[in-house]
Design a protein that fits this description.
27% helix
Length: 170
C-alpha cells in the first residue's frame, strides 16, 4: 500500500538587499540588519520553518545568506540544494519550480524554496486556488502552499493546491 502524504511547499524571498556599488547582481549581499527581523518572526512562521526537510536555494549570495539566517528555525537538518536555475532562469521561473519539485525525494514532505522576484510572485500567482488575490513577495515574505495528499512529488500540480497564504516576515 502506498501512503499518500500532504505535501507542503514554502516559498521565501531573500532578505532585503540595499543597492550597493557592486555591479554584479549575483554577488549582492543582504543587509545584516535583517537578523533582527528574523528574531521577530511570528510563531506561525517559526512553526512552518521548523518542519522544513528539503531546501532549494538560489546560488546567488543574498539567497545563500538568507538560508543562513533561517537555519536556527529548522528543527531538522534539511537537505540543501543550491541551484543556479533559481537565479538564471528568471523568465522560466514557474517551470523551474515545478521541475525542482519533481526531483524532491518522496519521503520529504515540507520543501522550502529560497528565491527571487518576480519569479516567486509569478509562481505563487499561477496556482489555481479560488478566492485568493494575487500578491507581490516582499523581502523575507513567506508563502505556504499545501497540496492534496499524493504518494510522490511528481504527482503534485497547480490545480492540486488546496490552501495558500503569505506573510511578511520583516
Amino acid at each position: 500500500m502506498i501512503l499518500k502524504a500532504l505535501r507542503t511547499l514554502h516559498l521565501i524571498r531573500h532578505a532585503y538587499t540595499p543597492i550597493h556599488l557592486i555591479s554584479n547582481d549575483f554577488d549582492r549581499p543582504i543587509d545584516f540588519g535583517c537578523q533582527t527581523h528574523t528574531q521577530k518572526f511570528p510563531v506561525t512562521t517559526k512553526n512552518s520553518l521548523s518542519r522544513i526537510d528539503h531546501v532549494y536555494c538560489s546560488s546567488a549570495v543574498r539567497t545563500r545568506q538568507t538560508y543562513v539566517l533561517l537555519q536556527p528555525y529548522f528543527s531538522k537538518d534539511p537537505t540543501i540544494v543550491y541551484t543556479d536555475l533559481l537565479y538564471d532562469k528568471k523568465d522560466e521561473y514557474t517551470q523551474v519550480v515545478w521541475d525542482l519539485l519533481r526531483e524532491v525525494p518522496n519521503e520529504k514532505n515540507n520543501v522550502l524554496i529560497i528565491g527571487h522576484n518576480p519569479g516567486l510572485t509569478d509562481f505563487y500567482n499561477s496556482l489555481s486556488v479560488p478566492n485568493y488575490e494575487n500578491i507581490h513577495f516582499p523581502p523575507l515574505g513567506l508563502a505556504t502552499i499545501q497540496f492534496h495528499p499524493t504518494s510522490s512529488w511528481d504527482q503534485v500540480y497547480a490545480e492540486q493546491a488546496i490552501e495558500r497564504n503569505i506573510s511578511a516576515c520583516a
